Protein 1
Amino acid sequence: MAAEDRRNSAGWCAGTSRWPLYFGILRNGLYFLYNSVIFCPYRAALEVFMTKNIDRKWLVLVAIGTGSFMATLDSSIVNTILPILRDAFNSNVAAIEWVITVYLLVITGFLLTFGRLGDLHGHKTIYLWGFSIFVLSSALCGFAWSTPMLIASRGIQAIGGAMLASNSPAIITGNFPASERGRAFGLTSLMTYLGLMVGPTLGGWLANAFSWRMVFYINIPVGALALTLGYIFIPSDEPAERNKPFDLPGAAVFLAGLIALMLGLNQGAVWGWTSPVTLGLFGGALLLLIIFVLIEKRSPAPMLDLSLFRIPLFSMATISAILNYVCLYSILFLMPFYLIQGRGLNSAQAGLFLTAQPVLMAITAPISGALSDKIGSRKPGMLGMAILAAGLFLLSRLGVDSALWVVVVGLALAGFGIGTFITPNTSALMGSAPHARQGIASGVLGAARNFGMVLGIGFAGAIFTTHLVQNTTSAFFEGISQGLAAAGIIALLGVVSSAVKEA
C-alpha cells in the first residue's frame, strides 16, 4: 500500500509540472536575495539573533525595512498594470488613472495629520494601525468589482500608507543615535529602492500568470509579516505631548488646501494650465493655505509647528529634498518618451535601460548614509546634487542618433547623485527636529517627496508639451532636451541649498 501511495504521489507530481518550476524559482530567488547586499539588514539581524547577541535597534530596522519594501513595491506594481486594469473593467484611461491619482492626493494630504497624531499618541501605535489599514484595504482592492470601488479602496489604502510614511522615519530617529542614523536611513532607502526595482517585473508576472487581483493580494502575507515584526521589535514610545489636543481645524484646512494644490498640479496638463478649473484650484489652494498659516499661528497646539522652519538645517533640508525630487521625477517622466517614442525601443528594453538609475541609488544610499555619520550631511548633499546635475546635463544632450551607452551613463550618474544626496539629507532633516516634533518632521519629509514628484512631472510635462504642438521630430527631442536641462539647473540650486546647511 505504501509503495502504491508513493507511485501515486510520484505520478501526481509528474503530472503537475509547473510546481517544481515554481519551487525552483522560489528557492533560487531566496538564495540569491539572502546572499545579496540588498538583503544585508535582514541577514545581519538574523545572524545576530542566531548568536543571541541582539541589538534591538537593528531588529527595529528589519521591521521598518520590510514596511518600506512593501509600500514601494505596491506603488510600483500598480503603476505597471494600469492597462490591464483598464481592460479588466472595460474602462477608459482618464478614469483608470484615478487609481494612481487618488492614492497620491490622499497620502499627501494626510501625512502631516498622522505625523502629528504620532507625536500625540505614539509613533508605534499609528504605524501599526497604518499597516492594518493598508493590508485590509489591499484585500478590498483585490476584491473590487468596478472602477469606482477600486478607486475608493485605493483611497483607504492611501490612508494606511500615510500612517506608515509619516511615522517610520520618526521611529528610526528615536531608536538610532545620531552617529548611526545615516547608516540606518541608508539601509531603509535601500529597501525602498529594492521595492521600486522588483515591483514592475513582479507586477507583470503576477498579472499574467494569475490575475491582476494577485497584485493586491500579495500585500496580505507581506504586510502580515511586517505587522508582526513591527509589533514584536518596535519598542513602545512615550509621547512627549500626550495631553495636548489635536488641531482639527488646522488639519482640515491643510488637507483641503494641499489636495487642491496637488490636484491642480497633477491634472493641469490635462485640463490646461490656464483653464478655469486649474486656476480655480490654485487660487483656492493659496487661500486655504494662507488661512492654515493664520490658524497655526493662533493655535496653542498647532498641527504644524511653524517654528521648525526657523531652524536653518530643517528648512534648507526640506527645500533641498523638494528640488531633488523635482529632478528625479523629471527624469522618470521624460526618459521613457525618449527611449520608446524617440528611439523605438519596446517597453521591456526601455525598462532595462531605466534600471541603471535605481540600481545605483540602491548601491550608493547606504554608503552615503554611513559616510554622513562621520562627516555630516553638507558635503555628501552638495556632491550628490552636483553629480545629479552632471547626469541631467549629459542626458539633455541626447539626440536621435546618440549612442545608447550614453543613456546608461547619464542615468547611472543621476542615480549615483540621488543616492548620495537623499540619505544624508533625510538624516539631517530628522535629526534637526526636536523629539516632540519627530512625527511632524516625518510628515514634512513625505510631503516634500510627493510635492516634488508632482511638481517635477508637471514642470517637465509643461516644457515637453509646449514643444510637441509643433508636431515635428526635432521639436520632440528639443522638448526632452530642454526639460532635462531645466532640471539640471534645479539640481544646481540644490547644490546651493545643501551648501548653506549647518551640518
Protein 2
Amino acid sequence: MDRTEALRWTVIARIEVAGRLAAIAQPVGVFIDLQTGRPVPLPAQMRP
C-alpha cells in the first residue's frame, strides 16, 4: 500500500508485459458497512 488514511487506502501498481511497462494504476478504496452503506475505518491488520 502506498498510503492509508482513516477511511481510505491507495495502492500504486506497475503492470508489465514481457518486461515492458504496460500501465501504471493508482486505485483508491474504502471499506463499506454493508448494512448502512457508510465508510468504516480500515481493519487494524491493514494499517501501517
Protein 3
Amino acid sequence: MRGRVWRYIGAGLGLVLLICVLAAIGLNAKTQSGKSMLADFVSRAASTENMKLDIGAIEGPLSAHPMLRDISLADKDGVWLKIDHVEMDWSRLPLASLRVDIDSVAIGRVDVLRRPIPAPAAATKPAAPAPARKAGDDMAPDLPVRFRLGAFQLDTLALAAPVLGEPATLTLTGSADAGASSNGAKASLSARRTDAPGAVNLEVAISPSPNRVSLALSAHEPAGGLIARLAQLPDLPPIDISLKGEGPLDNFVAKLVAQAGEELGAQGGATITRVAAGRRVEFDLTSRFAPLLPKALADVFADGAKLRGAAVLADDGSATLDNLALENSALRLGASGRLAADQKIEAHAALHGLPTSETAPFRAKTLEGELTVTGSAAQPDAKLRLLVEDALSSAGRFGHFDAEVTAVADGPLTEPRPRQTATGRSRSPRSPRRNCATMGCRPSTPRRTGGWRAIEPASTPISCWAPRAA
C-alpha cells in the first residue's frame, strides 16, 4: 500500500509536467478569462473517474516559461495532494526534430495530505512474448521522441502524518536525458530530508557504445526514518545501503552492501558476462532477514542464509536457471528451471534438512520437500510434497506432517481474481485443521472456496487461496 503512495506522487508530478508541455505547445490565452477557461479545460481532460485534477491557472502557455498554479489531485474522499506552482524553462524549436528539450522544471511546494484511495484493479491480458534480441543489440532505449530535462527542483515535499506514520519534509533534485544529447540515456535523482537526517541518491547511465551501464544507489537514515517506515521494517532500524555497478553488459559487475540495524542486512555481488547465445548472470548473496518472517519460520533462518546461483538470459527471449542454492545451518534448497521464449515454464526445486546442534533455534529429524512447476508463466501448474518429522522451534514442537498438493490454474494469474484448482492429502497424528493451518490452508469438503477449489475427495482434502494479482 505504501509503495502505491510513491507511485501516485510520481504519476501526479509526471502528469503535471506533461500538461505543462502540452499547454505550452498548442494552447494560448492572454486574458484572465482565457486563462481560467484553459485551466478548466486541461483539468477536465486530464481527470478520470477515480482521480480529479484541478488547475487554478496556466500562465504563459506559449512562452518559454509557462507556469501552472494551485494544482490539486482528489479522489472520492477529497483532495489528497496539493502543488502551489510548477514553472518550466524550455525551448520549442527542438520539437521539429522530435526532441523535447527542457532546461529546468521548478516546483515550489507539494503537500501530500494522506494516502490516495487505490484505483479498482482492472483485468489485464497476458503479455505477449518479447521479440528476440540479436547479439550485440543496443540496450539503451530506442524512443520515438528524445527527451532531456536539464534540472529538476522540488523545494519542499511535505508528507502529512497519515502518509507514513509521522510528518516529514524533503527536497528533491534530479535530471534526465533519454537520447536528446546522445544515443544513450542517463538519469539522476536525489532526495534529502530537511527536518531530520536522511538522504537517497541514484544515478543511472546507459551507453550504446559499447553497451555500457553505470549504476550507483546510496541511502542513509537514522532509526525511525522514512525508508524503514515505507518498507514496514520491525522496530524501524537505521538504514545504510550502497549499490554500485559498472561495466559493459558483456562484463558487468555489481556489488551490494545493505544494513538495517543489527538483525537485517545483505551483502554480495553479481556479474553479467557474454556467452554464445545470450548473457550469463551469476550472483552470490549473504543475508539476514529473520525479523521479516513469521515466528514459525524466523527460527529456521535465525542465522540468515547464503544465496548463490546462475542463469542464462538468451537472445531469443528465453531464460534458464542453471542452479539456485539457498543454504544455512538448518536446510539446503536447490532449484533449476527454464522459461522458454513462448513463456512455457518448467522448474524443479528440492528442500533438504541439515543436521543441527541440540541448541539450534530450529532442528528437525526430517525435513524434505519437492516442488515441480509446469505450464506457462501466466497459467502455471504445480505439484508440492512436504515431509516434516520431529521438528522443534520457539513456536513449539511438531511431531509429524506429510502432505502432497497439486494445483492447476483455471485461468491466467494476471486476472484480478486468479483461480486455481487444488487437490491434496495430508497425513499426521494431529487434527487435519491444525496441520493445514500450519501450511496456511484449511481442510474442506470438495468445493470452490475463494481462489482455490478441491475437486477430488481425499482423506484430508486441502483448499487454499491463491495470491491476488498486484
